[in-house]
Amino acid sequence: MTGALDPARRMVLGLAGLVGFFGLWALVAASGLVGKAFLPGPLEVAERLVTLLHTSFAGGTLPQHLASSLQRFSAGYLLAAAVGVPLGLLMGRFRLLDDIVSPLFDALRFIAPIAWVPFAALWFGTGFGGPVLIIFSGAFPPCLLNAYRGARQVDPRYIEAAEMLGTPTHRLILEVLLPAATPSIVAGLRIGAGLGWQSLVGAELIVASTGVGYMMVQAQSGVATATVMVGMAAIGLVGVLIDIALRALEARIHNRLARA
Amino acid sequence: MPLGRRSAIGVTTLGLLVLAWFMATGANGLISPGRFPTPADTWAAGLQAMGRGYGDATLVVHVLQSLKLVALGFVVSVVVGVPLGLLMGTSATAEAVLNPVFMLLRPIPPLAWIPLAILWFGLGDTAKIMVIFFAAFVPSVINTQAGVRTIERPLIEAARMLGTPHGRFIREVVVPGAAPMIFTGLRLSLQASWTTLVAAELVGALAGLGHLLNLAQQDLYPGMILVGMICVAIFGALTTALLGLVERRTLTWVRIKGETA
């Protein structure tokens, strides 16, 4: 709570933190306190990452596993957005729909997305459909909630003005509610992407025969700790990239709205 | 709009849904019993789990096992996370050193720690606690740190000017000031604890609700899957309600405005 540090000092301290982290990791790994098989050092993990870029492990190279993970992710996420956003807007507009859907939604929300895994596998199999349902159940709630909150926060005077002018319902939703709710919707899409990506990892750990999660489970049963850690890094990195992409989209939309 | 109408519609909807469940499943229903259980199947599975047990233990044992791990993992994360958040909130140096490491580890989804946890600690309780820790620790730290930032400057300056010793300053100014945000963090931590525990038990466990779900999936036993899911929902809701109760008892001076989860 002392005043802000100057940027140079901040950077030095930050670097010290990172060096400390990697140094401690390398030191413990090199000391032999923990078996080499269980804690490879940072360099070994980096080497393993480079190897996995072109060598196959558990049925594919790292880019191939990532591609199949991303494919599942896109399907589940787009489905969640395509159902959640319109439903949220409609719930924000029509009281009756809100009253009907909200209790269901609240009841289902207590079930962790990952607890759907058994039914997902039973209904849609373990290849593509099952994991897609898990991603959907992770990404859906923020998509719906944010569209709903966005629509509810629209200044009622706009809605009253549109109604008074006899605007048909579909135009009211598309031309009044949607633009006004856009910032909230985009924020929801971003949160949903993060949760969907997390759920995907869970789904792939349990049911799947491709993807980064599957690669990690295979590596775990073969005590290939470096490969497990490469998987963790790859998942983290792709998650960050998805977030960066959606943040850029968010900024663009904000700019456009500010100019309009 | 009176609340009465809303809850009446809610109860009606849930009632209709249960009715639809009775109608759609069963011998001549739309949904085959192999895909979704009938209410009678679910009831029977529930009775079996309570009485004879399923997966080497009765339902009570599975529930207690999961509750124990959630409680342990949650407590460990909070005991480490809240003080760390206080430290990062009050000391700019600590924040500058720790933040980059935190930023580096944070994007790794908690569930991605599961294989490493199993490699290091096997299928027992320690691995579960490690995974819950990585999931639940982050919201505790972030919200505590953010809570410290929300404390009004004049309060801090007044305490400084009066020469309040550091220990008292933390106990009587920082902690109470940050408390509402700390509780927000605790609630998120608790949710994260449940999600990751269920996932970790699904991946590999010897007991617990996730273990029960996993076996039911392998045995193609939809009734038992539903029993497991209902238990996860009920006990998740109960622990959240318990934390809410503690929050209201503790934060008697705060009126939480427009609170949403």
From TrEMBL, chain A:
Any single Pfam family the record assigns to this protein: BPD_transp_1
Location(s) in or outside the cell: Cell membrane
Endpoints of the signal sequence: none
Keyword Hydrolase found: no
Membrane topology: Multi-pass membrane protein
Domain ABC transmembrane type-1: 66-250
Domain of life: Bacteria
Transmembrane feature ranges: 12-34, 73-92, 223-246
PROSITE patterns membership: ABC_TM1 (PS50928)
Swiss-Prot/TrEMBL keywords: Cell membrane, Membrane, Transmembrane, Transmembrane helix, Transport
Similarity-based family: Belongs to the binding-protein-dependent transport system permease family.
Protein name per its UniProtKB record: ABC transporter permease
Organism this protein belongs to: Xanthobacter aminoxidans
